[in-house]
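Page 47, continued from p. 46.
Same chain as before, 111 aa.
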Amino acid sequence: MNAQNPFYLVGILALGQWREQWRNRSFLVALFFAGILIYASFLLGTLAVDQETRALLDFGLSFIELMGLGLAVFGAATGILREMETKTIYLVLTRPIPRWVYLLGSTSAFC
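Result:
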């Protein structure tokens, strides 16, 4: 692997952001809440008598989409702010990487 390849650097930064979010307690609570919503879609599917699979797919996929969007926005916003507070962003940006690579790597961890 070439260390100067921008996409390689984006992948390294995305992996670091992903690991950092798994250490965040509020991220795990939001992920637990997403699991509860998915389970609720199973319960709503059993309540629908004739349209069981349709209700399950509609509610389940909409919950997954909403929680995925919420977790992605939350993770991207808090990840960069946390790095600014702990001043690790300065350490990363002193390396010879473009800023667009840093921003893309920090936000692509949640896609």
